[in-house]
Amino acid sequence: METLDVVRVFCGPDGRHGNELGVVRDGARIPVRADRQALAGKLGFSETVFVDDPERGVIDIYTPTLRLPFAGHPCVGTSWLLDVPELVTPAGVVESRQDGEFTWITARAEWAPPRTLRRYGTVAEVDALDVPPSGEWIYAWAWQDEAAGRVRARGFPGRDDGIDEDEATGAAALLLTHELGRALNITQGRGSQILTAPGPAGVIEVGGRARLAEFSPSGA
């Protein structure tokens, strides 16, 4: 039987919220992609990570319906859980560091899956949004305090994965940081927190808090 850890990633300052992530530490015991995809679908998390080599940080990432070469919250959560300096993903090597209560990863915007970044005029408009019809993956956002780089955001996967709203989305935060060209402090979902910072040569850091969570078969 595979070993499953559940990690809440991008928790708020009070340690609550965050997006649940399933991490199968002994992923090498499930070598077939179809079997991994089936398990990810059964678990129902927005992403599930299979660790193929814990010492080198080699990982494989799945949503309930597809395999991803890179995703933000799985990389932050797995880096924290394994405490490794880097992860090896199909998209490339993701460097990782610990800074107090935050775990940071480095990645490139071109690694992120496509998202529609949709800006709204006020935080109240974002808060009032209903889940849109199925279709495109929408990252709805508004400035909470533009001068301070504070953003209010919500993520809607388009229901393709059976998930109406994503609580915290590192890849979308990565894309928004790339588009705006500045460091951001994002409050997403019910109260999750994502920090970002542009770096040299197109590299962007994404950081957040992670905590172990109780396993629930339904996922987030």
From TrEMBL:
InterPro entries membership: Phenazine_PhzF-like
Gene3D superfamilies: Diaminopimelate Epimerase, Chain A, domain 1
SUPFAM superfamilies the UniProt entry points to: Diaminopimelate epimerase-like
Domain of life: Bacteria
UniProt xrefs under Pfam families: PhzC-PhzF
Name used for this protein in its record: PhzF family phenazine biosynthesis protein
Organism of origin: Streptomyces atriruber
